[in-house]
Amino acid sequence: MDHLTMLYRGPLASCDYDCPYCPFAKRRDTPAQLRTDRAALERFTEWVSTRDHPISVLFTPWGEGLVRSWYRQALTTLSHLPHVERVAIQTNLSHRVSWTSGADLTRLALWATYHPGQVPYERFLGKCRDLKARGVRFSVGIVGQPDHLDAARRLRADLPTGTYLWVNAAEGLTYSDAEAASWTEIDPLFPLSRRPHASRGLPCRTGETVVSVDGDGTVRRCHFVPSVLGNLYDGSFRAALAPRPCPLDTCDCHIGYVHLEPLALYDTFADGILERIPTLLTLP
Protein backbone atom coordinates (compact mmCIF):
# COMPACT_ATOMS: atom_id res chain seq x y z
CA MET A 1 0.00 0.00 0.00
CA ASP A 2 1.22 3.51 -0.81
CA HIS A 3 0.89 6.47 1.54
CA LEU A 4 -2.42 6.56 3.43
CA THR A 5 -3.82 9.65 5.16
CA MET A 6 -6.19 8.88 8.03
CA LEU A 7 -8.63 11.20 9.77
CA TYR A 8 -9.39 9.63 13.14
CA ARG A 9 -12.40 10.61 15.25
CA GLY A 10 -13.12 8.50 18.30
CA PRO A 11 -16.12 8.75 20.64
CA LEU A 12 -14.68 11.64 22.71
CA ALA A 13 -17.20 14.50 22.75
CA SER A 14 -16.43 16.47 25.90
CA CYS A 15 -14.90 19.93 25.56
CA ASP A 16 -13.79 22.54 28.05
CA TYR A 17 -15.26 25.27 25.81
CA ASP A 18 -18.89 26.01 25.02
CA CYS A 19 -18.72 28.04 21.81
CA PRO A 20 -22.19 29.22 20.74
CA TYR A 21 -21.33 28.86 17.04
CA CYS A 22 -19.97 25.33 17.25
CA PRO A 23 -22.01 23.02 14.98
CA PHE A 24 -21.26 19.99 17.15
CA ALA A 25 -23.36 19.20 20.21
CA LYS A 26 -21.07 18.78 23.21
CA ARG A 27 -21.69 16.58 26.20
CA ARG A 28 -19.90 15.77 29.42
CA ASP A 29 -18.31 12.36 28.93
CA THR A 30 -18.75 9.91 31.78
CA PRO A 31 -15.74 8.04 33.18
CA ALA A 32 -16.92 4.96 31.28
CA GLN A 33 -17.13 6.92 28.03
CA LEU A 34 -13.64 8.28 28.57
CA ARG A 35 -12.30 4.77 29.17
CA THR A 36 -13.95 3.64 25.93
CA ASP A 37 -12.37 6.52 24.04
CA ARG A 38 -8.96 5.81 25.51
CA ALA A 39 -9.13 2.12 24.62
CA ALA A 40 -10.23 2.95 21.08
CA LEU A 41 -7.40 5.44 20.61
CA GLU A 42 -4.79 3.06 21.99
CA ARG A 43 -6.04 0.34 19.65
CA PHE A 44 -5.77 2.71 16.69
CA THR A 45 -2.28 3.80 17.72
CA GLU A 46 -1.18 0.18 17.97
CA TRP A 47 -2.57 -0.54 14.50
CA VAL A 48 -0.67 2.37 12.98
CA SER A 49 2.52 1.34 14.77
CA THR A 50 2.47 -2.10 13.14
CA ARG A 51 2.11 -0.92 9.54
CA ASP A 52 4.86 -1.19 6.94
CA HIS A 53 3.78 1.66 4.65
CA PRO A 54 3.77 5.47 4.97
CA ILE A 55 0.90 6.94 7.01
CA SER A 56 -0.20 10.42 8.06
CA VAL A 57 -2.80 10.95 10.78
CA LEU A 58 -5.03 13.89 11.66
CA PHE A 59 -7.06 13.63 14.86
CA THR A 60 -10.36 15.49 14.50
CA PRO A 61 -12.15 14.92 17.83
CA TRP A 62 -15.63 16.31 18.46
CA GLY A 63 -14.30 17.56 21.79
CA GLU A 64 -10.90 18.72 23.02
CA GLY A 65 -8.35 15.93 22.89
CA LEU A 66 -5.21 17.47 24.33
CA VAL A 67 -6.70 17.81 27.81
CA ARG A 68 -6.68 13.98 27.83
CA SER A 69 -3.34 12.31 28.47
CA TRP A 70 -3.99 9.51 25.98
CA TYR A 71 -4.18 11.93 23.06
CA ARG A 72 -0.90 13.57 24.05
CA GLN A 73 0.66 10.10 24.37
CA ALA A 74 -0.70 8.95 21.01
CA LEU A 75 0.67 12.02 19.25
CA THR A 76 4.04 11.57 20.91
CA THR A 77 4.22 7.85 20.16
CA LEU A 78 3.17 8.21 16.53
CA SER A 79 5.58 11.08 15.93
CA HIS A 80 8.51 8.76 16.65
CA LEU A 81 7.49 6.08 14.14
CA PRO A 82 9.63 6.27 11.00
CA HIS A 83 6.75 5.40 8.65
CA VAL A 84 4.48 8.14 10.07
CA GLU A 85 5.13 11.20 7.96
CA ARG A 86 2.88 13.57 9.91
CA VAL A 87 0.65 13.36 12.97
CA ALA A 88 -1.56 16.33 13.82
CA ILE A 89 -4.59 17.25 15.89
CA GLN A 90 -7.25 19.95 15.90
CA THR A 91 -7.14 21.71 19.29
CA ASN A 92 -8.18 24.84 21.17
CA LEU A 93 -4.74 24.95 22.91
CA SER A 94 -6.33 25.12 26.36
CA HIS A 95 -3.84 22.59 27.72
CA ARG A 96 -0.19 23.35 28.43
CA VAL A 97 2.12 22.72 25.49
CA SER A 98 5.18 21.45 27.36
CA TRP A 99 4.26 17.84 26.46
CA THR A 100 5.50 18.52 22.92
CA SER A 101 9.08 18.31 24.19
CA GLY A 102 8.74 14.52 24.14
CA ALA A 103 7.61 14.36 20.50
CA ASP A 104 9.55 14.26 17.26
CA LEU A 105 8.94 17.79 16.03
CA THR A 106 9.82 16.88 12.45
CA ARG A 107 6.52 14.96 12.34
CA LEU A 108 4.23 16.55 14.95
CA ALA A 109 1.93 19.45 14.05
CA LEU A 110 -1.03 21.26 15.64
CA TRP A 111 -4.11 22.85 14.08
CA ALA A 112 -5.13 25.41 16.71
CA THR A 113 -8.30 27.49 16.87
CA TYR A 114 -8.77 30.70 18.84
CA HIS A 115 -12.23 31.13 20.33
CA PRO A 116 -12.82 34.71 21.59
CA GLY A 117 -14.90 34.74 24.74
CA GLN A 118 -13.68 31.29 25.79
CA VAL A 119 -10.07 32.09 26.68
CA PRO A 120 -8.19 35.30 27.56
CA TYR A 121 -6.45 36.65 24.46
CA GLU A 122 -3.02 36.89 26.08
CA ARG A 123 -3.23 33.32 27.33
CA PHE A 124 -3.91 31.97 23.85
CA LEU A 125 -1.26 34.17 22.26
CA GLY A 126 1.21 33.04 24.92
CA LYS A 127 0.60 29.41 23.94
CA CYS A 128 1.32 30.27 20.31
CA ARG A 129 4.55 32.03 21.24
CA ASP A 130 5.55 29.05 23.39
CA LEU A 131 4.94 26.66 20.50
CA LYS A 132 7.01 28.85 18.20
CA ALA A 133 9.87 28.95 20.70
CA ARG A 134 9.75 25.15 20.98
CA GLY A 135 9.88 24.70 17.22
CA VAL A 136 6.44 23.08 16.92
CA ARG A 137 4.68 23.30 13.54
CA PHE A 138 1.25 24.84 13.93
CA SER A 139 -1.41 26.91 12.26
CA VAL A 140 -3.90 29.16 14.01
CA GLY A 141 -7.49 29.82 13.01
CA ILE A 142 -10.63 31.65 13.93
CA VAL A 143 -14.28 31.40 12.90
CA GLY A 144 -15.35 34.34 10.74
CA GLN A 145 -18.10 35.60 12.99
CA PRO A 146 -18.68 39.36 12.51
CA ASP A 147 -17.85 40.07 16.15
CA HIS A 148 -14.54 38.21 15.78
CA LEU A 149 -13.11 40.55 13.14
CA ASP A 150 -11.27 42.87 15.51
CA ALA A 151 -9.85 39.93 17.46
CA ALA A 152 -8.69 38.33 14.21
CA ARG A 153 -6.93 41.52 13.12
CA ARG A 154 -5.24 41.79 16.48
CA LEU A 155 -4.16 38.16 16.36
CA ARG A 156 -2.80 38.53 12.83
CA ALA A 157 -0.64 41.43 14.04
CA ASP A 158 0.59 39.67 17.19
CA LEU A 159 1.25 36.09 16.09
CA PRO A 160 4.87 34.97 15.75
CA THR A 161 6.44 35.58 12.36
CA GLY A 162 5.61 32.90 9.83
CA THR A 163 2.39 31.73 11.52
CA TYR A 164 -0.52 31.15 9.18
CA LEU A 165 -3.85 32.50 10.44
CA TRP A 166 -6.76 30.86 8.64
CA VAL A 167 -10.39 31.95 8.78
CA ASN A 168 -13.31 29.53 8.58
CA ALA A 169 -16.53 30.98 7.20
CA ALA A 170 -19.18 30.81 9.90
CA GLU A 171 -21.74 28.10 9.24
CA GLY A 172 -24.90 29.47 7.64
CA LEU A 173 -23.51 32.99 7.24
CA THR A 174 -23.50 34.74 3.86
CA TYR A 175 -20.73 37.29 3.36
CA SER A 176 -21.05 40.42 1.27
CA ASP A 177 -18.12 41.21 -0.99
CA ALA A 178 -17.00 43.93 1.42
CA GLU A 179 -17.20 41.56 4.39
CA ALA A 180 -15.33 38.86 2.52
CA ALA A 181 -12.64 41.36 1.56
CA SER A 182 -12.06 42.20 5.23
CA TRP A 183 -11.54 38.54 6.08
CA THR A 184 -9.38 37.99 3.01
CA GLU A 185 -7.02 40.72 4.23
CA ILE A 186 -6.41 38.46 7.24
CA ASP A 187 -6.43 35.12 5.39
CA PRO A 188 -5.70 35.28 1.64
CA LEU A 189 -7.27 31.81 1.34
CA PHE A 190 -10.59 32.85 2.92
CA PRO A 191 -12.32 32.75 -0.49
CA LEU A 192 -11.93 28.96 -0.36
CA SER A 193 -14.03 28.87 2.79
CA ARG A 194 -16.53 31.60 1.88
CA ARG A 195 -18.95 29.37 -0.02
CA PRO A 196 -19.52 25.59 -0.22
CA HIS A 197 -17.78 23.93 -3.13
CA ALA A 198 -19.89 22.15 -5.73
CA SER A 199 -18.47 18.65 -5.52
CA ARG A 200 -20.82 16.04 -6.96
CA GLY A 201 -19.04 13.94 -9.55
CA LEU A 202 -15.67 15.56 -9.00
CA PRO A 203 -12.58 13.42 -8.40
CA CYS A 204 -11.53 13.35 -4.75
CA ARG A 205 -8.66 11.61 -2.98
CA THR A 206 -10.95 10.44 -0.17
CA GLY A 207 -11.70 6.76 -0.42
CA GLU A 208 -8.46 6.11 -2.26
CA THR A 209 -5.49 7.63 -0.40
CA VAL A 210 -7.47 9.39 2.37
CA VAL A 211 -9.93 7.74 4.75
CA SER A 212 -11.92 8.51 7.88
CA VAL A 213 -11.77 6.12 10.83
CA ASP A 214 -14.00 6.03 13.92
CA GLY A 215 -13.40 4.49 17.31
CA ASP A 216 -14.72 1.08 16.28
CA GLY A 217 -12.41 0.99 13.29
CA THR A 218 -15.20 1.65 10.79
CA VAL A 219 -13.64 3.16 7.68
CA ARG A 220 -15.44 5.67 5.48
CA ARG A 221 -14.09 7.78 2.66
CA CYS A 222 -14.48 10.96 4.74
CA HIS A 223 -16.36 12.32 7.75
CA PHE A 224 -19.19 13.57 5.54
CA VAL A 225 -20.10 10.49 3.48
CA PRO A 226 -21.81 7.85 5.65
CA SER A 227 -21.29 4.82 3.41
CA VAL A 228 -18.85 2.30 4.90
CA LEU A 229 -15.77 1.01 3.07
CA GLY A 230 -14.96 -1.68 5.62
CA ASN A 231 -13.17 -2.05 8.92
CA LEU A 232 -9.64 -1.09 9.81
CA TYR A 233 -8.91 -3.99 12.12
CA ASP A 234 -10.07 -6.87 9.96
CA GLY A 235 -8.47 -5.31 6.88
CA SER A 236 -11.72 -5.34 4.91
CA PHE A 237 -11.38 -1.67 3.96
CA ARG A 238 -8.34 -2.28 1.77
CA ALA A 239 -10.23 -3.87 -1.10
CA ALA A 240 -12.54 -0.85 -1.25
CA LEU A 241 -9.79 1.74 -1.71
CA ALA A 242 -10.16 3.13 -5.22
CA PRO A 243 -10.61 6.40 -7.11
CA ARG A 244 -14.21 7.57 -6.86
CA PRO A 245 -16.09 10.83 -7.47
CA CYS A 246 -17.72 12.78 -4.66
CA PRO A 247 -21.35 11.68 -4.14
CA LEU A 248 -22.42 14.91 -2.39
CA ASP A 249 -23.74 18.10 -3.94
CA THR A 250 -21.38 20.33 -1.97
CA CYS A 251 -18.40 20.19 0.37
CA ASP A 252 -18.02 23.06 2.82
CA CYS A 253 -15.39 21.89 5.33
CA HIS A 254 -11.65 22.31 4.84
CA ILE A 255 -10.84 18.76 5.94
CA GLY A 256 -13.10 17.60 3.10
CA TYR A 257 -12.58 19.95 0.18
CA VAL A 258 -8.81 20.11 0.59
CA HIS A 259 -8.84 16.63 -1.00
CA LEU A 260 -10.96 17.60 -4.02
CA GLU A 261 -8.56 17.24 -6.91
CA PRO A 262 -9.83 20.10 -9.15
CA LEU A 263 -9.08 22.63 -6.38
CA ALA A 264 -5.37 21.66 -6.53
CA LEU A 265 -4.95 22.40 -2.83
CA TYR A 266 -2.25 19.75 -2.50
CA ASP A 267 -0.12 22.21 -4.46
CA THR A 268 -1.15 25.06 -2.17
CA PHE A 269 -0.51 23.20 1.10
CA ALA A 270 2.04 20.56 0.02
CA ASP A 271 3.36 18.91 3.20
CA GLY A 272 1.13 21.12 5.37
CA ILE A 273 -2.14 19.49 4.30
CA LEU A 274 -3.01 18.03 7.71
CA GLU A 275 -2.04 21.01 9.85
CA ARG A 276 -3.40 23.56 7.34
CA ILE A 277 -0.14 25.36 6.65
CA PRO A 278 0.11 26.58 3.04
CA THR A 279 3.35 26.44 1.14
CA LEU A 280 2.43 28.87 -1.65
CA LEU A 281 1.79 31.85 0.64
CA THR A 282 4.32 34.30 1.99
CA LEU A 283 3.34 34.35 5.64
CA PRO A 284 3.66 37.56 7.70
Automatic annotation (TrEMBL):
Q: What organism is listed for this UniProt entry?
A: Actinomadura chokoriensis
Q: Which residues form a coiled coil?
A: none
Q: Give TM segment ranges.
A: none
Q: What is the name of the protein in this document?
A: STM4011 family radical SAM protein
